[in-house]
Structures are given as C-alpha cells and as structure tokens.
UniProtKB/TrEMBL annotation, chain A:
GO-annotated molecular function: 4 iron, 4 sulfur cluster binding
Protein name: Cytosolic Fe-S cluster assembly factor NAR1
UniProt key word Lipoprotein: no
One Pfam family of this chain: Fe_hyd_lg_C
UniProtKB/TrEMBL annotation, chain B:
Name of the protein this chain belongs to: Probable cytosolic iron-sulfur protein assembly protein 1
Compartments it resides in: Cytoplasm; Nucleus
HAMAP family, per database record: ciao1
Subunit and interaction comment: Interacts with NAR1.
InterPro entries reported for this sequence: CIAO1/Cia1, WD40/YVTN_repeat-like_dom_sf, WD40_PAC1, WD40_repeat_dom_sf, WD40_rpt
Domain of life: Eukaryota
Protein family: Belongs to the WD repeat CIA1 family.
Native species: Saccharomyces mikatae IFO 1815
Alphabetical keyword list: Cytoplasm, Nucleus, Repeat, WD repeat
Function: Essential component of the cytosolic iron-sulfur (Fe/S) protein assembly machinery. Required for the maturation of extramitochondrial Fe/S proteins.
One cellular component term from this protein's GO annotations in UniProt: cytosolic [4Fe-4S] assembly targeting complex
Length: 492, 330
C-alpha cells in the first residue's frame, strides 16, 4: 500500500511449491569445486547443479504441503509405471500378476460403462487376464475384515481402559479417530499433530490385502518377488499410503485409480466393454488358493467406505442382548452416528464424518482448550447464557453427536470414498456429483453381497499362519513452527 | 459538479487503518497495530469509548464487521484467526467489549470477514485461497464451519453478503469475483465474474430490493457493475458486466460501497474518493475528491446514516477516518 511497508505484515500469497524444501537441499558431494588454496569456486553455470528429484517418500517426510504434487505421484505410481514395470517383469515366465480392487472402483466402473456390477467385474478380470496374464484378482473384503476386527478390538480395549474413572460414559472422553483414509491421516500428521494421539493405529484394507496376499504365497513357499501386486483404488492419496515406509513390506507394487485405468484402455486402444463375458467362474478361477470368492468380492453393512463405525457398534450390541442401534443423522449429509442404547442408556456410539468442513469442526471441537488462555473472558459471559441455547442443546440430542462417540470413521472427501478423486465422476458440478455418490451408494447396497466381518474375522486370523502387518507407524509429532514466509512482489 | 466536503477528521492511529464498520452509532476500526478502537459517532465529540485488547491477535487487524443490529464484532487478522467481541454489561454504563471467542481454521492471513444480514452466518476469507462459512447461535458464542469453499485459485481479499438473500460474493487476487449460494446442505459456487484485469479488492451489492447487482473494484483501476441475468439448466447463475464506471482512478481501487441511496463510492491507492450516479441506465461521476487522506492511500469507504443524514466515511494509511458529505449542485 503506502511506500513504507510494515515488515511484520508484508506477506501475500505464496505458491505451495515454494514451501517444498527439497530443491534447496543441495547434496554434500560438491566439495571438488574447492581449489588448491582451499577456496570455494563459485560456478556460474547452472547446469553444473545436480538436478533434484523429489520422491514420494520425500513428500511424506516433509511438512511443506499436505499432499504431494500430481507430477510426483504419477512419476512413481501410475499406469505408465505399471505398464513399464510389469511389462519388463512379465518377460519372465515364472512371474505373475495379482490385482486387488476396492468395491468403490468396481461400482464406479460399472456406472461409467452402464453395466451391472457383475458384468463390470467380469470385464475387469477378463481384461487383466487376457492383456496382462493376470493370475489372481481379488476384492478387498478380506483385508477389510481384518481391518474392521482389529479396529473393533482396539476401540473396545480403549473404552474398557477408560471406563472406570467416569460414571457418565460420554463425559469428556475424546473419540478415537480412524486412520484408514490416507487423506485424513496425512492431513493430521502434517498439520494437526495434536490430533495424532487420537488416531487409531490400524491399516486400511488396501495394505492388509497386500499383506494377506503376501502371506498366502509365503505359505506356499512362493517368494514375494515372484509376483507383482497392482491395486485399484478410488483416490490418489492411496498411492501415498502405499508409499509409507511401513507399507513397503505389504507387497503392493503400484496403486492406480479407475481414471487411470480408463486412460490406459484408451492408450491401448481397447474397449472395456469388449471384454464382456458370461463366464462367472472367473471369480473363483482368479481367486488365490484358500481365498473364498464369496468373501473377498463381498462387502459388509455400514457406510460404503468400510462400515467401521457401524461394525463396532454391532460388535458391542452382541455383548448386550436387548440393546438397539439407532442411526442418527447429522447436521449435514456427511455425518451419521450409530448409537447403541439399552432403554435410555447409551452403551456405545460411533460416527461417520467426512469432508473438509466437518473435519475442521472436528479439529476445533477435539482440540479445544489448546487456545484457552486466549479466551480468558469467556467464563464471565457464559454466566449470562440464557434459555434458548440450553434448549437448543437438548434438541441437539436427537441428532448425531459425533464428537461424543467412542470412535469416528473420518474420510477426507465430502461424500466419502464413493466420491473419491480417482473415480469416474468427471467434470460434473458438485450437485451432480452428490447425486452420483447417492446412486453408487444405492448400488452398493443392491449389487454387492454382504458378509459379516465380525463372524468371519476370528477364522481369518486363525488361518493366517504368519502375523499380519496391520499397524501404521505414525509420523513423530512435530513441534509446530512458524512457517518461513517468502514474499513475492505484490502489495498485500 | 457536486462536491464532497469534509465534516470531520478523526486521527486514530499512527499505523494504517485497514477496515472499519458502523453499527448502532459505534465505529469500530482495525489497524496494523492490532488495536481495535471504538468511537461513538452519534455525539459531536466523536469520543473514543474503548480500545480492545491488542494481545488477542498477533498481527494486524485486517477486517472488522459488526453483526447486524447488535453489539457483536468480528475481527479478522493476519495471524490467521478471527476474534469475536461482545459488549459487556457494566454497572456504570460505560461501553466495554470483551473477547468472546477466537475462531481458528484458516491456514494464513484472514483478509475479510462479513456477517449475513440475519446474523447467523459469518463468512471469512484468507490468503489460503479459501472462503469459510460459519454458522453461529443467537449469542454468537459457538461457531461451526458449514462450508469451506476452495474454488478461488489465489488469495481471497474480500467477502460480502447480499443484503437480503443468502448469497455471498468473494473477491480475489485471481482477478475474479465468485458468487456462492447454498444448495442442499452445502454452499456452491454458482457464478464466476470474469473481466477485471487485476486483483479484485472488494465488491458490494446493490441495496435496491429485488435487485441482483454487484459493483467491484480492482487493481486494474476500474469499477465494474455486474448484473444477474438468470439461472442456466445446471443451476449456475449468469452474471454479465453491465457497465465499467467512468475512468476516475489512476491506481488500484481498494474498496467500493453501494449506498442505500443508489450511489456507488470508490476509493483507492490514488487517494481519490469518487461517487457515481446512475442516470437513465448510464453511470456518471457525480463527485470526485483528490487527496482525501493527504498523500496516503485509502483502504476503505462506507456509506452511513448519521443523525438523519447520509454521509460517507473513509479510512486510510494515515490512520485517520474522515467523514464526508455530498453537496449536490443545484
């Protein structure tokens, strides 16, 4: 504004790229420029500088931006990488391809191509089998069953541990938060470390499926480098998830989305629907040894992202005969609470919450108190609180109250996984996307077989000879630091 | 030509005044020095009645807004937070305001705050390129984020609500104004106003009932008037640039104000205050005054009713609020 700019407030928009610290870290092997006198020769030729490449793991380790740029994602996890790497590997006859696919991707493909879910599944299997010698193809329900059972176990353990001190089970206890959505997990680790202690440490179906596949072949004495595991997932952050250090051992080689699958089909000049077949025996024939196609291709009750919240409440219900589950709608369509009640007592409660706006409220509600010294005058004013707001509180009891649940299944995308960025929802405006999510959710209920993960879980764990890798290693909680601000030109 | 005459000059700060707002005869100002000052403008002495605790914010107060018809004030700061202040009842009838809440959420500098006409929504915008809509209760104590709007590609400079409809306009460094409307349970961008060739610093709605028009001021030194034409089949609104107001400013236009009298006022980096009038569908410069704050830039302009008269107030880098009356030529 005026000629004299106040230094304290001189800052305007900086592009996220500037916050990426990696390019400024010049490698240490530059000392050869030092001459005989020990003086450092400054090179004026920029070409002599080593080109810095940024990898996915750099992005995961950095606190600069929330997720990495598309360019970086695509350079290490993309359909081209799959085509190249599997193309090379498949030259060796003993190597084989395993593909796992999430239910959201299957429904999105079915909707996009105007097929039934089964027809789309068969096209997908036929395509990978004929084009890429795919030997095994699985749904992610097995991984989800393990993930759900571990989650339920941990919530119950946490609740039992916390219970004795308080008479009121809903008083001042903070809910556990799901870490299954990689978008929310990375956001929490990088920008909201104060929430990290609430994260529930159980891996997602994607990673556990990888681990289960690896286990299956290990038991058959087939080493992990014999197969290539491609995972088809609804969002781009799933690539980041597979690139986490503790994920690398799960044996997933590449994660792509339905969008990339469609691009790949175009590049190969192939029509997805031309792979249509009525051979439903593919479900069984492409199942790995010991994998029941009725199970791994199925889904389960609860939300379409995994149903963790519902399954937890259902598990507690089995311990309390006569109790009832009520489904409570929230302030908006992205909040649902499952509440287990015995007469008027709330025995257990878990919620689904998705979308950035709701996550912001979650952050504010669950971290309140952190800035309490700045609200020192509030107590005085609270005394003046009159009738209306006390009433509105009572009324709120009839709607979902996720922040007093035992557990919140958090998803970063509004509309959750059925609105994943990697699905075939095109350039539609958000209103139409909402309708599409609704359609996909309805189809999920109609076209997928439902299994009971709570009944199947114990059997699965018995069957697993080797322990599965099911826990994330969360990023260490960093002290929040003031970001270095770089000013670029403009006034304010 | 009509003239603009100075009624009163109020030196409040050493630093610049970024923003001010009036409600119930009280002027609230925000400045780089983090102090929010309250001035009673209903009496001739324009007494300073309160200075709000500057430790509530770590950086400059960029924007202040009174909740309509109340004594609740929102202040957005470069420290990325928004503070809410409430009038405290006091026995000796002095005017005192206390910090009621700090709203956190934006990643960096908050550039604008605005209340909806019914006072239940607070919109905030930031250098983080987003606009947030908060819902609040009767007392203004609790704030729940109901939407985070991220369509702007750059710094969002300013937000303003339509005087009667639930319609929000945001102005940005990306040279556009976006119009937002609630659908279902979320807010959606229903229009992008393209045309300015530089940062849009602010906008204001036509106050005429049933009218959907907006004026906007930009780095490109122009003021434009936009008109809503109707909805298309995708529920998007069509807005057209109806007029570019006569060329008055030589530099950035920082703030525009559309008065209840139908006149538009604009101020900017050139220190000029201009008033425009629409005559038979054509906009003319009604009055213009240069050096309104000496050599300093003007950041804010507002129309207000004071003792039955419609006057103008401007705030500038000289830390002064000036009050002006429009003397129409006979």
């Amino acid at each position: 504004m005026s000629a004299l700019l106040s230094e304290a407030d001189l800052n305007d928009f900086i592009s996220p790229a500037l916050a990426c610290v990696k390019p400024t870290q010049v490698s240490g092997a530059k000392k050869e420029n030092t001459n005989a006198d020990g003086e450092y020769e400054v090179s004026t030729d920029p070409d002599q500088l080593e080109k810095v490449s940024i990898t996915l793991s750099d992005c995961l380790a950095c606190s600069g931006c929330i997720t990495s740029s598309e360019e970086i994602l695509l350079s290490s996890q993309s359909h081209s990488v799959f085509l190249k790497n599997w193309g090379e590997l498949s030259q060796q006859q003993d190597k084989f391809l395993v593909v796992s696919v999430s239910p959201q991707c299957r429904l999105s493909l079915a909707q996009y191509y105007g097929l039934t879910l089964e027809a789309a599944d068969l096209c997908l299997m036929n395509f990978f089998q004929t084009q890429f010698r795919c030997k095994y193809m699985v749904g992610t329900e097995m991984g989800r069953i393990v993930s759900i059972n571990k989650t339920v176990e941990k919530i119950i353990a946490h609740k039992n541990q916390a219970q004795p001190q308080t008479q009121d089970p809903r008083a001042d206890r903070k809910p556990l938060l799901s870490a299954v959505c990689p978008g929310f997990l990375i956001y929490t680790e990088k920008t909201k470390p104060q929430l990290a202690p609430m994260l529930l440490n159980v891996k997602s179906p994607q990673q556990i499926t990888g681990s289960l596949i690896k286990n299956t072949f290990k038991n058959l004495a087939i080493p992990p480098d014999t197969f290539y595991h491609l995972s088809l997932m609804p969002c781009f952050d799933k690539k980041l998830e597979a690139s986490r250090p503790e994920s690398l051992d799960d044996g997933i080689d590449c994660v792509i989305t339905p969008r990339e699958l469609v691009t790949m089909l175009q590049e190969l000049k192939l029509d997805f629907k031309s792979f249509v077949t009525e051979d439903t025996s593919l479900y069984a024939r492409l199942s790995p040894p010991g994998w029941d196609p009725q199970v791994h291709w199925a889904s389960n009750l609860g939300g379409t992202c995994g149903g963790y919240a519902y399954q937890y409440v259902a598990a507690v219900q089995r311990l309390h005969p006569g109790s009832q589950i009520t489904v409570l709608e929230g302030k908006n369509s992205d909040i649902v609470e499952y509440r287990l009640q015995h007469s008027d007592d709330i025995i257990a409660a878990a919620s689904e919450l998705s979308g950035f706006r709701n996550i912001q409220n979650l952050v504010r509600k669950l971290t309140s108190g952190a800035g309490s010294e700045r609200k020192r005058n509030i107590t005085a004013l609270r005394k003046r609180r009159t009738g209306p707001s006390a009433n509105s509180r009572k009324m709120a009891a009839a709607t979902a109250d996720p922040f007093h649940s035992d557990y919140i299944e958090v998803n970063a995308c509004p509309g959750a996984c059925m609105n994943g960025g990697g699905l075939l929802n095109g350039e539609q405006n958000s209103l139409k996307r909402k309708q599409l999510v609704q359609t996909l959710n309805n189809r999920h209920g109609q076209e997928l077989a439902m299994v009971d993960p709570l009944a199947l879980g114990p059997k699965l764990e018995e069957a697993a000879v080797r322990p599965l890798s099911i826990e994330y290693v969360f990023a260490p909680v960093k002290q929040a630091t003031e970001k270095d601000l770089v000013s670029v030109g403009s006034t304010w | 030509m009509s003239s603009i005459e100075l009624i009163k000059s109020l030196k409040l700060y050493k630093d610049k005044i970024w923003s001010f707002d009036f409600s119930q005869g009280i002027l609230a100002t925000g400045s780089t020095d983090r102090k929010i000052k309250l001035v009673n403008v209903t009496n001739d002495d324009f007494a300073l009645i309160d200075v709000l605790d500057e430790t509530a914010h770590k950086k400059a107060i960029r924007s202040v807004a009174w909740r309509p018809h109340t004594s609740l004030l929102a202040a957005g700061s470069f420290d990325s937070t928004v503070s809410i202040w409430a009038k405290e009842e006091s026995a000796d009838r002095t005017f005192e305001m206390d910090l009621l809440a700090i709203i956190e959420g934006h990643e960096n500098e908050v550039k604008g705050v605005a209340w909806s006409n019914d006072g239940y929504y607070l919109a905030t915008c930031s250098r983080d390129k987003s606009v947030w809509i908060w819902e609040t209760d009767e007392n203004g104590e609790e704030y729940e984020c109901i939407s985070v709007l991220q369509e702007h590609s750059q710094d969002v400079k300013h937000v303003i609500w339509h005087p009667s409809e639930a319609l929000l306009a945001s102005s940005s460094y990306d040279d556009t104004v976006r119009i937002w409307k609630d659908y279902d349970d979320d807010w959606e961008c229903v229009a992008v106003l393209n045309g300015h060739e530089g940062t849009v610093w602010s906008s204001d709605f036509d106050k005429t009932e049933g009218m959907f028009r907006l004026c906007s001021g930009s780095d490109d030194s122009t003021v434009r008037v936009w008109k809503y034409m109707g909805d298309d089949e995708d529920d998007q609104q069509e807005w057209v640039c109806e007029a570019i107001l006569p060329d008055v400013h030589k530099r950035q236009v920082y703030n525009v104000a559309w008065g209840f009298n139908g006149l538009i006022a604009s101020v900017g980096a050139d220190g000029v205050l201009a008033i425009y009038e629409e005559m038979d569908g054509e906009w003319k410069v009604l009055a213009k005054r240069t050096l309104c704050h000496g050599v300093y830039e003007i950041n804010v302009v507002k129309w207000l009713e004071l003792n039955g008269k419609t006057i103008l107030a401007t705030g500038g880098d000289d830390g002064t609020v000036n009050f002006w009356s429009l003397k129409r030529s006979p």
